[in-house]
Amino acid sequence: MLAILWKDLRIEWRTKEMLSSLAVLAVLLVLTLTFAGQAGTVGASAGRLAGALWVAFLFAGLLGIQRSFLLERENQCLAGLLVSPVDATSLFLAKLVGNVIVLGLMQALIVPLGALFMGSGMAANLPALAVVLALGNIGFAAVATVFAAAAVRTRAREVMLPLLVLPLLLPLVILVVKATGAVLGGTSLGEVGPSLTYLLAFDAIYCTAGWMLFEFVVRE
Amino acid sequence: MRARDFFDRWLPWIAGPAMLIALYCIFLVAPTEKDQGVIQRIFYVHVSSAWTAFIGFGTVAMSSALFLWSGHDRYDRVAHAAAEIGVLFCTFVLLTGPIWARHIWGTWWQWDPRLTQTLILWTLYVSYLMLRAFGGNDDLVRRWAAVLGIFGVLGIPIIIRSVRILPGIHPAVLMTREGDTGLVDPGMRLALYVTAVAFLFVFVWLVHLRTRLQRLADTMALMHAEQG
Amino acid sequence: MARPVVVEAQGLVRRFGTATVLAGVDLRVGPGTIVAIFGPNGAGKTTLLRILATLLAPSAGAVSLFGNDAFGSHAGVLRRRIGLVAHETFLYPDLTATENLLYYARLYRIDDGSERAAELLAWAGLDAHRTRPVRSFSRGMAQRLALARALLHRPELLLLDEPFSGLDAAGAEAVETTLARMREAGGTVVLTTHDVARGLALSDRACILNRGRLAWESLGRAPADAFAAAYRRVVGDG
Fold first, then answer.
1. I need a labelling partner for A162 at 20 to 30 A (CA). Which of A77, B43, B44, C167 fits?
2. Considering only CB atoms, which chain B residues are within 8 Å of A156?
3. Per-residue pLDDT tens digits for A158-179
């Protein structure tokens, strides 16, 4: 048993990959939690719920989005796509929409659960909530889809995606938690304020960037 | 190669004296701040580093875009070098910030908007560098890193605005808005601008050195491979 | 030039990091021709094929397909006329054979997709298995389905990487017949293989790729002994 342990430690020390990636990942996690927590201080329990929900969405979502490219990995199906007349932007849109749908379905399950466990007498504004969640999903998926295509082909796959994507998503976390908290507390869409506008801007910027740059990510 | 001549021969002679002038300004031209005392002088390097760190990331992004557009390896080398040097300046901001904060407010960390923005920038830098370090050495990874750099810089306007509306954030003490330094004394202003310019020169020079080193390393690796 | 050239590669170089896999390859193939590329492992055959399929961009050099730049802005249109059969099957293991073919039919915007899929399933002898997930297929069955996938859109240029590996005699013969029929219809085939006998019998021209260069090319059909001598000369023994 000791021999195995020693060998593992030795390999780890040689490459130092996992150590440093985990260290950075830990920093990113703490930051994400902090921002979600801070952005969720508005409106007490609604805000706390919003923060907790989005942290859950982020991590489950990252796994789900990663899967969307793992699909193409077996038997090199991605090559099959690249050899076909389909262009990279269509591929990006297809994956993006697919991921947004998956995120939405996941939220449809988690939000009621979350409200059950944590909420206490909240006046939730459902249509507004759906809009805010959708906006958050689009921004999240736009960024994550681009880098999932990349992460699935590097060595330290499972660690790479959050590492690449969380820093880009930190502003999204701030904005979407604030907006979600407001909406869970009963605010109407018009009154949510600048977080909604910035969220829209985030989505627009990253959907366009992904659309234009996906070609470079996916073609050799 | 006239541009390279400039970088190789003249730049050190500009950057070096610029730093000396900056030091002179920081310690002898700018007056001592009445409330904070001598420790306030750290502010000049702190803010200059921050500006350089942000400009540094802009350099990463621009080189990345040029790399994707043209395919020339040299732009990729510049991007990588700019990231390595930029992260140093960024780390410096995050180190001097707490030192200053400790003396002013008694705590090691304050959720000051500028510091928070710089922290996020730092994570962008680190994720870029980790991708390059652990992704491997092939063309694809360089493209991905370039895309990461561009994505990062696109987010900076949103980062700045979203941090400002973060509820738990404390208003900055000496700065009223980004861009407005809030400095009244002309001596202080001079010290800040001189230091900022000096830091920029040093940044450019270091990036140039690092790029040159990488170019040599790449050439050697290629020669080795061709012989083997 | 009497006949239009289908594949024209000039000075192809491809590097991966510091390794140079292709060190300057020139190749011209006209229509109605089958070219077989031989060579030891690591010679760069797969890389060359992937570049011709526009999957991989060369580090230097140019490729034109059907007279157009293979990596220009209209590469998508060109891909409609190319089929690739690689070592991996490009098939989704959790979808059935029919679903896989219908998917590719839609990707290539084939009008008679379902008829074509049925036709090719029958040709591949997989009709009985058409509703089974590809995951359950044997290597030989998957290979045949992959070939069916590549033929769906009636490509004018077919690129195959070691098509005979994993096939039994009957399967290999079916492939040969299909390729010969393609040639008669004016199509072009470039294949890599280790099966010298089959490759030489089938092809109109044979090449040997060694260490990233086309070290030898026959002018017409290569007789087996001339080829063997050339191979020994170029690659060395063992």
1. A77
2. 134
3. 678 898 999 999 999 999 998 9
> Mean pLDDT in runs of 10 for chain B (228 residues)?
70 82 77 70 86 95 95 92 96 89 77 87 95 82 94 94 77 46 71 88 92 91 78
In a domain, A138, yes or no: yes
CA-based Rg of chain C, rounded to a whole angstrom? 18
**How many domains does chain A contain in total?**
1
Beta strands in C152-228 (DSSP E): 157-161, 188-192, 205-210, 213-217
Which residue is closest to C20 within chain B, CA to CA? Answer: B226
Residues of C in contact with A74 (CB under 8 A): 92-93
Return the pLDDT at B178: 40
**Rounded Cα–Cα distance for residues A33 and A180 (Å):** 15
Most C CBs within 10 A among A70, A71, A82, A91, hence the mutation to make, goes to A82
Interface of B with C (CB under 8 A): 136-139, 221-222, 224-226
Q: A163 by DSSP, 3-state: which?
A: helix
- Radius of gyration in angstroms for the set of CA atoms belonging to chain A, rounded to a whole number: 19
In a domain, A128, yes or no: yes
Domain boundaries, chain C: 1-80+157-162+188-238, 82-154
**B179: domain range?**
49-220
pLDDT, residue A15, reads: 66
pTM over 0.80: yes
* Euclidean distance between CA atoms A214 and A89, whole angstroms: 7
Q: Residue B218: closest CA among chain C residues belongs to which residue?
A: C18
Q: Which of B135, B136, B166 sits opposite A174 (nearest CB)?
A: B166
Q: How far apart are CA B163 and CA A1, in angstroms?
A: 49
Number of domains in chain B: 1
Chain B touching partners, 3 or more CB pairs below 8 A: A, C
Q: Using the beta-carbon criterion (under 8 Å), do A76 and C88 form an inter-chain contact?
A: yes
B47: amino acid identity, one letter: V
Contact assignment for B143 to A217 by CB distance below 8 Å = yes
Q: Is residue A71 part of a domain?
A: yes
Q: Per-residue pLDDT averaged across A5-33, rounded?
A: 80
Rg (CA), chain B: 19
Burial class (CB in 10 A: 0-12, 13-18, 19+), C217: middle
Residue A43 lies in a domain: yes
- What pLDDT does B181 receive? 54
Over residues C101-116, the mean pLDDT reads 92
Q: Are strands C7-16 and C19-29 parallel, antiparallel or unpaired?
A: antiparallel
> Can you give the three-state secondary structure of B118-169, one letter per residue?
HHHHHHHHHHHHHHHHHCCCCHHHHHHHHHHHHHHHHHHHHHHHHHHCCCCC
Which residues 100-139 of chain A have a CB within 8 Å of chain B? none
Give the pLDDT score at B179.
Answer: 45
Yes or no: is domain C1-80+157-162+188-238 CATH 3.50.50.60?
no
Report the C-alpha gap between B220 and C176 in whole angstroms.
Answer: 47
pLDDT at B169: 62
Tell me the pLDDT tens digit for each residue of C77-100.
999 999 999 999 999 999 999 999
Bridge partners of residue C65, in order along the sequence: C7, C68
* CA C194 from centroid of its chain's CA atoms: 13
pLDDT value at residue B59: 96
Using a CB–CB cutoff of 8 Å, tell me whether B5 touches chain A. Answer: no
Tell me if chain A has a CB within 8 Å of the CB of B143: yes
Which of these ranges, B20-34, C1-15, C175-189, has the smallest mean pLDDT? Answer: B20-34
Q: pLDDT confidence of C46, banded at 50, 70, 90?
A: very high
